[in-house]
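P.,

For your records, the input lines for the assembly:
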Amino acid sequence: QKEVEQDPGPLSVPEGAIVSLNCTYSNSAFQYFMWYRQYSRKGPELLMYTYSSGNKEDGRFTAQVDKSSKYISLFIRDSQPSDSATYLCAMSSQGGSEKLVFGKGTKLTVNP
Amino acid sequence: GAGVSQSPSNKVTEKGKDVELRCDPISGHTALYWYRQSLGQGLEFLIYFQGNSAPDKSGLPSDRFSAERTGGSVSTLTIQRTQQEDSAVYLCASSRHRAGPVYEQYFGPGTRLTVT
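Structure tokens returned:
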């Protein structure tokens, strides 16, 4: 079993839809949870991070962490064509100052 | 300001040849990471440099892979006797020293390596 599992999709939604992306993990030492967005032929960029369990909201994006279930989610409200990208979850036990463990990424397409 | 830069952007090499990939981190960033992203796979950690500490080489897949970081800045990832399974995008990232809960790793655009 991989440390981090993420459905690669692809996921295709109409503009304005609510998108739900998620990852599961097996290592209970993970405390820092991140979502990266990667456009085609570009490096990933950090979207959001959360520490331990709970929710965090930033504009149209909401990140949720449920440590008891070892499950994290990213919700995108009012999705836009510019949100079309691959979304990677990443995790660390030490706040990102060491190696991150990534999911495979979910490819999202938002259709106008 | 300038982000993380990597060169070359694309590299095609023959099986068995050696290749060098270069990473220029963001100025002032003390931590530098190399990852590999193969088709259909997530990012796979390779090696991590932090200041003058010994690097964490735990992700290097074989002894054909090595990396160095000169003067705490530029890093070179070397792959000797390349194999077709080495074909991937090699990504470099850098981050600041710990000053908060999470360090954002800033990624470069990657080097796309194709071994024929």
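Two observations worth noting. The CA atoms of residues 33 and 102 of chain B lie 15 Å apart. Chain B has a mean pLDDT of 91.

Regards
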